[in-house]
């Protein structure tokens, strides 16, 4: 996953989606300043405008509209949305709007739109934050750096080294290729979560 530290990659490799609107009730710990960090990564689609949805906080506040993850950052690249709000005396304040908090919880909903299903990779809720210490993604790399070399070129190293006339270069490439084939995976191959998609 691009833009994330290795320890955080797991947050973006798994997701929750639904064929309809879905959500969570998030417990609050009293009055104060909060930041809600919504973590996304497009791991299925390869083009923009395929998955577009909205996010609503506490049944009233449209905090993210027409989110198209691929259009913003591409495939396999992390994207975070930061939602700042205040809680005071049983009310939630977001921008110029306010709403009632019931039972010490706020509702977070991912609204089904006209383009595929809503999804979320991870949710972080922080109270009493220091802006400078909030977790941030690294800046997005240039388009060239995001596109990995095709594996077919690595397998074809004999032809490439013949044109350079350097046999030692071919040996180095073969060793690199052998090392990449012997990598251990992190676990058993998981089924595609969209294989049973009804949309």
From TrEMBL:
<keyword id="KW-0256">Endoplasmic reticulum</keyword>
<feature type="domain" description="Malectin">
    <location>
        <begin position="2"/>
        <end position="123"/>
    </location>
</feature>
<keyword id="KW-0812">Transmembrane</keyword>
<dbReference type="GO" id="GO:0005789">
    <property type="term" value="C:endoplasmic reticulum membrane"/>
</dbReference>
<dbReference type="InterPro" id="IPR039155">
    <property type="entry name" value="MLEC"/>
</dbReference>
<feature type="compositionally biased region" description="Low complexity">
    <location>
        <begin position="158"/>
        <end position="173"/>
    </location>
</feature>
<keyword id="KW-0119">Carbohydrate metabolism</keyword>
<keyword id="KW-0472">Membrane</keyword>
<comment type="similarity">
    <text>Belongs to the malectin family.</text>
</comment>
<keyword id="KW-1133">Transmembrane helix</keyword>
<dbReference type="InterPro" id="IPR021720">
    <property type="entry name" value="Malectin_dom"/>
</dbReference>
<feature type="region of interest" description="Disordered">
    <location>
        <begin position="135"/>
        <end position="199"/>
    </location>
</feature>
<dbReference type="Pfam" id="PF11721">
    <property type="entry name" value="Malectin"/>
</dbReference>
<keyword id="KW-0325">Glycoprotein</keyword>
<keyword id="KW-0732">Signal</keyword>
<protein>
    <submittedName>
        <fullName>Malectin-B</fullName>
    </submittedName>
</protein>
<dbReference type="GO" id="GO:0030246">
    <property type="term" value="F:carbohydrate binding"/>
</dbReference>
């Amino acid at each position: 996953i691009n833009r994330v530290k290795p320890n955080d990659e797991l947050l973006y490799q798994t997701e929750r989606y639904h064929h309809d609107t879905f959500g969570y009730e998030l417990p609050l710990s009293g009055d104060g300043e909060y930041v809600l960090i919504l973590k996304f990564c497009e791991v299925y689609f390869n083009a923009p405008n395929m998955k577009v949805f909205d996010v609503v906080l506490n049944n009233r506040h449209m905090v993210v509209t027409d989110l198209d993850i691929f259009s913003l950052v591409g495939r396999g690249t992390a994207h975070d949305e930061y939602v700042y709000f205040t809680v005071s005396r049983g009310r939630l304040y977001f921008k110029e709007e306010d709403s009632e908090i019931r039972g010490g919880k706020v509702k977070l909903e991912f609204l089904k739109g006209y383009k595929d299903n809503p999804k979320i990779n991870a949710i972080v809720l922080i109270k009493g934050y220091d802006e400078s210490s909030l977790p941030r993604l690294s800046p997005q790399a240039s388009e060239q750096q995001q596109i990995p070399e095709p594996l077919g070129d690595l397998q074809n190293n004999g032809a490439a080294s013949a044109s350079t006339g350097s046999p030692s270069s071919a040996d180095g490439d073969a060793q690199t290729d052998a090392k990449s084939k012997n990598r251990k995976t992190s676990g058993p191959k998981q089924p595609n979560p969209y294989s049973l998609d009804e949309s």
